[in-house]
Design goal:
The structure is a homodimer of 426-residue chains. Chain A is of the alpha/beta class and 426 residues long. Chain A is 41% helix and 14% strand. Chain A has an 8-stranded mixed beta sheet, sandwiched between helices. Chain A has a 3-stranded antiparallel beta sheet with strand order 10-11-13, covered by helices on one side. In chain A, strands 1-12 form a two-stranded parallel sheet.
């Protein structure tokens, strides 16, 4: 029965029960963490053999005999480019292989555009006044932090089940100060939504007023399917070809959640002219990225099949965790009308919407229990969730027994916060 | 006998002899490279065992049990900080350990100061008009490239045998638009000069007009001695303590020429307040740098003694190369009055000054022989050597037999260029 249809008496009884459970949980002294999208230890072990691939000096040579222990190849090794081709379908000449962090590549891309512009002849963003980025919400907090760091104004764009509201995007890009949009197009963070073909096509067809508008296509979960039949995301570059708009897109990928989050390899995929420009600046920034780690990865993930086979092992470890969360939410909160959530088919998160005005309360109730969630509001620019309802659940890191405890507790907290809200409004 | 004191006839005879040698060299079809400061393969092999240090999941844990395969510790692992303490003498809290490239750290430091300022409350450099950097010359081309990329005006400061001309530095920093200076204080690139105690003290005592003036102390060759008794460089931070000027200095170091140039670890050393600020921005830039590579290095270079012992092995391989170059220069060009060079006690370069107006000519003569030198002019901002006389010799990469051939050829080219110059002026 929906809580809103219950009588005050019924709600008060229910609240008392939940508060009793809460007190018990509190005395249990939990320390659990569901705050960040971090792979479990069992997932990290899947890539352990990668650390034994490079041993002898001969192991450290590239296919053309070049010694990868030494300087050179600032845009990456041919082997690593091929690996990212397997991953993305992009040709090697559109790929620049970087260091271990795609976030770093994104930060550098914004910084470069701020200081030097999107191309050789382009005005730096920082000299164009109060520039703006579009932020589909809820979204990834670290994208928003980059904008905040550089003083770029953020405009919320609502997410739909098909991706960002494209009517809103198309309207917003009529403003020439709008210079970019953050997208996680497959298994979006946190909603787990994969952009529909229609959405991708409309992105490719965008006609922004700013010639230096850029789509930041953070394809973080490109092969991170939970099921054999993964979501299908249209190749945005292929669509852009039809409109001559390939310069408008930067794609970012990494192996952080394929091999090791702390020691993976990241890449940026872009049009030939964007790649040439980025390489020209990058050549001033560094002599090379870590080519041994690139080679280690390329030897470990040596074909498209190897990558997909490896990702199936991750999926086997992650599916039960996602199932635990969704089953518990359904059992405890299904039909109550105080919570909605997605059941993603990939990615790293479950997005939970509770009653308006209750997310912060749930977060602090959980915090008091010793359970860390991503802070309420974090999925919105400036940490301001206008409806204070969204919570991001990251189920991947805790072992399943701990996860069960954490989600049970979460349901108790949601009930308490929402029943109190309903009672206050009655 | 000095060439300038020879008769026209004597010079013409000598020139004809050298041209004959040149023709013979040309027909030999050489392909040699003395252009960049790259370690030889034998040097890279010295660190090979580092690649077998991390194998099991347990190997990948930090001293507190943290799994370094995963996210976290954006400012570096405690083990790697300790390693850089052994290397620099700086306390761990003044150290931020980064990715594989100190050049990248320097680039990012300039970019951060351009966009966000040197501190939270500081005006970004990019909003202060036509800012300037001081460049001791000859110097490191990649420092100059960073300034050029960001449109920072460069002012030449002459090098003396004690380091940069401090009278000139002290005069220049009276201009509030002067925001920085590039220094390679030990075994400078390319002169191999170690700054005297007096020079370091005067740096520490600087009173620049700009409160956001910064010394970029690129300590690239901090332990890169060729002899057991290395040059001694005063600790600039200790000197700065006396003047309350520690915020004025960023020190950069890396293991590029200790372990692997393409897969080392770099760090920035700075005052507590600079470190806090840099960390606050870096936390927006990346979730972490490659901690496995940090751990590999920290386990391999596990004490000050281990580092010094390792560097002695490098020195043993490099000493004969430097000796070959200096002996040949002395034998062929000693007493001719057309060339001066240093005999460095460490670092990666020999700096050769030929007759004014002859460096480019020597470079192109060498190029025609198939021998790559660092381009003439590269050791000066904007690639403009006002006297066109400086050439940077990088003797570390070629095997010694090749190096001998290359330096023999170099002497022939220097003689041809300089004799022709003297004849033209007679």
């Amino acid at each position: 029965m929906e809580y809103r249809n219950m009588t005050r008496g019924e709600l008060e009884t229910l609240l008392a029960e939940e508060k009793e459970k809460y007190a018990a949980l509190k005395s249990a002294g939990l320390t659990l963490d569901m705050s960040r999208g971090v792979p479990g230890r069992d997932q990290l072990d899947l890539s352990q053999e990668m650390l034994s691939i490079l041993v002898t000096p001969e192991d450290c040579a590239g296919e053309d005999g070049r010694d990868y222990r030494s300087y050179g190849l600032p845009d990456g090794t041919p082997e690593a480019k091929r690996m990212f081709s397997y991953l993305t379908g992009a040709p090697a000449e559109n790929i620049i292989v970087c260091g271990n962090s795609s976030l770093n590549v994104m930060f550098d891309t914004v910084a470069r555009n701020m200081l030097l512009g999107v191309s050789k002849d382009s005005e730096p963003w920082s000299r164009q006044g109060n520039i703006k980025f579009l932020c589909p919400v809820p979204g990834y907090d670290r994208h928003f932090s980059i904008c905040e760091t550089f003083g770029i104004e953020m405009i919320n764009i609502p997410m739909t089940t098909e991706g960002p509201d494209m009517d809103a995007v198309e309207a917003a890009v009529r403003d020439p100060l709008v210079k970019g949009i953050w997208c996680v197009p497959k298994y979006s963070n946190p909603d787990g939504i994969t952009y529909s073909d229609e959405t991708v096509k409309r992105f490719a067809a965008l006609k922004p007023a700013a010639p230096d508008f850029r789509i930041f296509w953070d394809n973080a979960y490109i092969v991170h399917d939970l099921y054999d039949e993964g979501d299908k995301l249209l190749d945005i570059f292929a669509e852009c070809e039809k409109y001559g708009s390939t310069d408008m897109v930067y794609m970012f990928v990494s192996t952080s959640k394929i091999t090791f989050p702390g020691a993976g390899v990241a890449a940026i995929i872009a049009s030939r002219s964007n790649v040439e420009y980025i390489k020209s600046v990058m050549a001033m920034q560094t002599i090379c990225h870590d080519k041994l780690n690139q080679l280690r990865h390329a030897k470990f993930l040596s074909s498209r099949d190897k990558i997909l086979e490896h990702m199936k092992k991750h999926a086997a470890l992650l599916r039960p965790k996602f199932k635990t969360v969704c089953d518990t939410l359904e059992r405890e909160l299904g039909g109550t009308g105080v919570a909605e959530w997605n059941t993603p088919r990939g990615g790293y998160f479950i997005s939970l919407n509770v009653c308006d005005g209750c997310a912060k309360k749930v977060y602090s109730l959980m915090e008091e229990l010793g359970i860390k969630l991503t802070p309420a509001g974090a999925t919105f620019p400036y940490r301001r969730d206008p409806r204070d309802r969204n919570l991001r659940i990251a189920p991947t890191y805790p072992p399943i027994e701990e996860l069960k405890k954490a989600v049970d507790a979460l349901c108790v907290c949601v009930k308490i916060a929402c029943i109190e809200k309903i009672l206050a409004e009655k």
